[in-house]
Amino acid sequence: MKRSDRLRYRYHARPVARAAERCGEGLLAEGRVTLEIREGGKLRLGDWVYLFPSVGLHLIDPAAVLEIGDHTYVNRRTEIVARREVVIGAHCAISWDVVIADSDEHWQNDVEMVQPIHIGDHVWIGARAIVLKGVTIGDGAIVGAGSVVTRDVPAGTLVAGAPARVIREGVEWW
């Protein structure tokens, strides 16, 4: 297979691929993607990442890392903000209008302003959900639409609400 066949960047994917420290095969950006990457920030994209129109990827500190795994899609108007680290696993489905931010941008005594976010493999995050700093979402979990995730989500659970709480365990989705 020729290199040009393996690296098929469609639509507006080329600027995203150029900005990435690592970009796998088959990046698809179906519309304009807002990129804000401070010098030193590291954007890492797996194979066959699909970015829908109006997605925002913001690496707002020089040490920021944003990693999106293989076969993951990020739907319309979703904003991902990394000051330190946001890692999204493989085969994830992130719906529209989702906010994922590893900082709350508030300075308070004895409260860490920035904490990394880790989202496992095969995680589904519903429309208009918010994932806040310091959260780990386990493999195979589902975050219900409109949820505000403030605490870790165990693998294979469905969480919903504001703040999100476990609704069901042992869930599977395809």
How would you describe this protein?
The chain has 174 residues and is mostly beta strands. The chain has a single domain, classed as Hexapeptide repeat proteins (UDP N-Acetylglucosamine Acyltransferase, domain 1, 3 Solenoid), CATH 2.160.10. Helix content is 6%, strand content 35%. The protein has two helices and 21 strands. The chain has helices at residues 3-6, 13-19, and strands spanning 10-11, 22-23, 28-29, 34-37, 42-45, 50-51, 56-59, 65-68, 73-74, 79-82, 85-88, 93-94, 99-101, 117-119, 124-125, 130-131, 136-137, 142-143, 148-149, 157-160, 165-169. The strands form three sheets. Strands 1-3-6-9-12-15-18-20-21 form a nine-stranded mixed β-sheet, covered by helices on one side. It has a six-stranded parallel β-sheet with strand order 2-5-8-11-14-17, with helices on one face. It is globular and about 40 Å long. The two termini are 30 Å apart.
